[in-house]
Specification:
Length: 205
C-alpha cells in the first residue's frame, strides 16, 4: 500500500505470478460542483474506472472488466459522504498468469482503504476453475501450471463474506458452481483476515 506517490491511495496485489497495481485519486469535487452547490443542485458521486491489462488483452474484454469492477465497487462506497465528487480508480496488470480479475478487485479494495474512502464493506475476490480434462476443480489456477477449460471469479464482501458478484469465463457445469464458490469463499476469508490484521480495517454501516 502507498506505492504511488501522486495518488491518494495505492496498493499492489499478487496472486501467484499475476500482479495488479491500483491507484486511487479522490474523491474530489467534480467540475461544475461549486456552481451546482450555489444553485442548489445535488450532484451525484461518480466512480471512474480505468483498467490497463497486458498488450494481448482485447479492447472489448477490457471494457467488460471495467464495467464489472465499477458495478462491484460503486455500491460499496458510501457515496452520500462524497456529494458532487468524483473518484478515479486506475488499475494496471504488469504480469498475467491467471486470476487477473480477482487480483484487480483485491488491489482496488486495498487502494480504496489506503485512500481513506469510507466503505460499507471490503470486497474480496478469488478465482476457481475446472481443469482441461474437466475432472478436477482448481483454486486460484495459474495459467503456466494449471491450465483450465473454464474459470469463475467470485467476489464476496467482508466481514460477513456474502457473495455479491461472479464473472465466468468458459462453460462450467452448473452442478460444479456451488463447490467452486465454496472453495473461493474459504480462500477469501483467509485473504480478508490477512488484510484486516495488516491495516486494521473498519467498515461503516
Amino acid at each position: 500500500m502507498g506505492l504511488v506517490s501522486e495518488a491518494d491511495g495505492s496498493a499492489r496485489f499478487g496472486l501467484g505470478a499475476t500482479v495488479v497495481t491500483a491507484a486511487v485519486r479522490g474523491p474530489r469535487l467534480s467540475k461544475g460542483s461549486a456552481l451546482d452547490a450555489l444553485s442548489g443542485v445535488s450532484g451525484a458521486f461518480t466512480l471512474d474506472v480505468h483498467f490497463r491489462g497486458p498488450a494481448t488483452m482485447r479492447q472489448n474484454e477490457t471494457g467488460r472488466w471495467k464495467t464489472f469492477l465499477a458495478d462491484v465497487l460503486r455500491p460499496l462506497i458510501l457515496a452520500e459522504r462524497y456529494p458532487r465528487s468524483c473518484l478515479t480508480l486506475s488499475l494496471h496488470c504488469s504480469h498475467d498468469d491467471g486470476a487477473m480479475l480477482a487480483a484487480a478487485v483485491n488491489a482496488a479494495a486495498a487502494a480504496l482503504v489506503d485512500a481513506g474512502v469510507e466503505l460499507r464493506g471490503i470486497p474480496v475476490a478469488c478465482q476457481a476453475g475446472v481443469d482441461r480434462d474437466r475432472k478436477s476443480l482448481l483454486l486460484d489456477p495459474q495459467r503456466s501450471t494449471d491450465p483450465t477449460s473454464a474459470e469463475a471469479t467470485f467476489v464476496f464482501v467482508a466481514p460477513e463474506m456474502h457473495p455479491v458478484a461472479v464473472h465466468q469465463s468458459g462453460p462450467i457445469d452448473p452442478a460444479s458452481l456451488p463447490e467452486l464458490e465454496s472453495m473461493a469463499q474459504q480462500a477469501c476469508v483467509s485473504i480478508a483476515n490477512l488484510a484486516r490484521h495488516a491495516v486494521g480495517v473498519e467498515t461503516s454501516a
